[in-house]
């Protein structure tokens, strides 16, 4: 059962569409959606106790097995809600962590997710041991057997966190060497970035004819895939990377854990910022992507906006020109319209990429004496 609480914030999703998609991606089937309005969250239950009763009754009636909140719950609120409703209660953060855990494939990805989960869990330990808590309450003194157990588990988690961090450090060092090798190759590097489900993997496949996993799920891609893309138009090859999608309110532990991966993924000469033009929320999604880019210090990399899914736009919403510009943080950025699925606009996109790769090459060669400032070439024109 999905629950959303409208606290008057701009990105409130009244249909709980994204939460529903997240739930489905995690393998759950939404049976009902409940939303309500509040000026501020209730300290104990997040919603009022009347609303909590309503959730409990509807959940019983429909046979729901879990309640998911679109907003982040404090460990205390989560615990109280579980007691009140009698079902597991989780929030968006937990759901995203679950999906990342299910999806992670590479050794490093698994370690990163593990770290983020351990950190999330360490603040919420108590609720898994609620029977011990009751026991402690019954005795009426602090420091009973329950508390000792919790402390023990905390310490174990603390040690796991330390171990995972160490292993992660080791993997990162290895990857650092790989990256230096790549930088020496001097190929023009392009990364596909964008909000989750925008169509990055579909576009990646359309461009390199690879078969990256694309699905109507959130976070279909977690690990970065890189391929060579030959641009006949320019007579050169560039590297193209498909990366993990961004989402609003990405859990903090995850941002930290994935920072290295994200930074490496977007360690590019050009970012192809893919946007789901058919999603009415696209301006907010662009904003979220820009925010993450800023957080990881990548907002100065040149961008080319790719407005995807034009096949899904109504006839009266079709673009007038396939290439124009769009104001990103009040800077005009070139924008191109495509349909990765119907392979529309791909040729134009390739031309754009070729142009940029050639410009970069000219700039690089221009730095070296005697190559592009060739006097014969300069005098050859009419
Ligand atoms: N109608 C339409 N659907 C598209 C287009 N491109 C992609 N899709 C669909 O959008 C969904 C998401 O596509 P993906 O390529 O997996 O998106 P992604 O950005 O890689 O998503 P994550 O890896 O989850 O971040 C899939 O169901 C695609 O079939 C398009 O041009 N038109
Ligand atoms: Mg993908």
Can you give a write-up of this model?
- It is globular, with a radius of gyration of 25 Å.
- Helix 1 (17-25) runs parallel beside helix 4 and helix 5 packs antiparallel against helix 8.
- Strands 6-7-5-8-9-11-10 form a seven-stranded mixed β-sheet, sandwiched between helices. It has a four-stranded parallel β-sheet with strand order 2-1-3-4, sandwiched between helices.
- With 382 residues, the protein is an alpha/beta fold.
- The longest helix has 40 residues, at 145-184.
- 47% of the residues lie in helices and 16% in strands.
- It contains 13 helices and eleven strands.
- It has helices spanning 17-25, 49-62, 75-85, 92-103, 107-122, 125-128, 130-139, 145-184, 200-208, 252-265, 282-295, 346-366, 375-378; strands at residues 2-6, 33-37, 67-69, 89-91, 189-194, 225-231, 236-242, 270-276, 303-308, 323-328, 331-337.
- Helix 1 (17-25) links the parallel strand 1 and strand 2 (33-37).
What layout of secondary structure does this protein have?
Elements: E1 2-6, H1 17-25, E2 33-37, H2 49-62, E3 67-69, H3 75-85, E4 89-91, H4 92-103, H5 107-122, H6 125-128, H7 130-139, H8 145-184, E5 189-194, H9 200-208, E6 225-231, E7 236-242, H10 252-265, E8 270-276, H11 282-295, E9 303-308, E10 323-328, E11 331-337, H12 346-366, H13 375-378
Parallel strand pairs: 1-2, 1-3, 3-4, 5-7, 5-8, 8-9, 9-11
Antiparallel strand pairs: 6-7, 10-11
Helix pairs in contact: 1-4, 4-5, 5-8, 5-10, 7-8
